[in-house]
Amino acid sequence: MNRLPLYGGQAVIEGVMLRGPSAMAIAVRRPDGDLFVHRQRLKPAGERWRGWRLPFLRGVVALADSLGLGVRALLISAEAAGEERLSPWQGAMIVGLASILAVGLFMLLPTVAVGGIAGWLTWPAARHVVEGILRLAILVGYVALLARMPDVARIFAYHGAEHRVIHLVEADGEHTVAASRGLPIIHPRCGTSFLLFVAAASVLLFAFFGWPSLWQRVLLRLALLPVVAGIAYEAIRLSGRSVHPWVRAMAWPGLWMQRLTTREPDDDQVEVALAALKAVTSED
């Protein structure tokens, strides 16, 4: 049996970006109510990136690829939604600073904090577990605070619309607003679940290296980030395809956390997501 092509995407400013095997499409609701749709063809991943098919390495490749397309989509959507236009280098600078903040906040801060209480945790494995719990707590707290902002909550509603139309494709349903109603607003291949897998994989991987000095731990965590991303990517691919009870149990925490990063979309937002879906699935 042939598998359906995998579709993914993200919420953008007042819209949705969807990508498939050979194209990316962005649909945005303009301030005047009209729909803006942008579509561009993509070379197959194997032509753009060497090692695309290699397990674990493809996770690093996919992450870099998704980051590049995501930044491009945000810049396009911002302009279409009437926001101040940013040049590519300004967008790259913002993403670079955000990436540094994310690495510092979620990867380095927990190991620094646990270092301060390491003397109380005589069992080395306990230090890694506490570090992982702290990393997860920072992640959940950060997302929960973001969700309280009205503008972010609206983006999270578009996130729900994105998931809903992807479920529509996977269910081979009619591409209409009515057909989408009742479909889940969470999805096992979501980037939110990926972040949770990163947190879990980091605990298991870092434990193999003991508890060296602070600077050694910092360097190890930075050096092993690509490995952690590769493991998390394989886990999220498995959770998106398998219905085995153990795999579903593994995916449950990520699905729970998506309830923080998604909101119930209205019909207007689903219509925007469907416009992106129509564009990304159209034949040239």
Q: What's the structural domain tally?
A: 1
Biggest sheet strand order reads 1-2-3-4
What spatial form do the alpha-carbon principal axes imply?
globular
Distance between the termini: 26 Å
- Estimated share of beta-strand residues: 5-15%
* Number of helical segments with 4 or more residues: 10
Task: Give unreliable regions as ranges.
Answer: none
Integer-rounded radius of gyration: 20 Å
What is the β-strand count?
4
**Fraction in helix:** 55-70%
Structural class: alpha+beta
The helix/strand order is EEEEHHHHHHHHHH
Main sheet? 4 strands, antiparallel
Mean pLDDT: 85
Characterize this entry briefly.
With 284 residues, the protein is an alpha+beta fold. The chain contains 10 helices and 4 strands; from the N terminus they run E-E-E-E-H-H-H-H-H-H-H-H-H-H. A hairpin with a 2-residue loop joins strand 1 and strand 2 (15-19).
Keyphrases for this structure?
globular, 64% helix, 284 residues, 8% strand, 10 helices
Task: Describe the overall structure.
With 284 residues, this protein is of the alpha+beta class. It has one domain. Helices cover 64% and strands 8% of the residues. The protein has 10 helices and 4 strands. It has a 4-stranded antiparallel β-sheet with strand order 1-2-3-4, sandwiched between helices. It is globular. The chain starts with 7 loop residues before the first strand and ends with a helix.
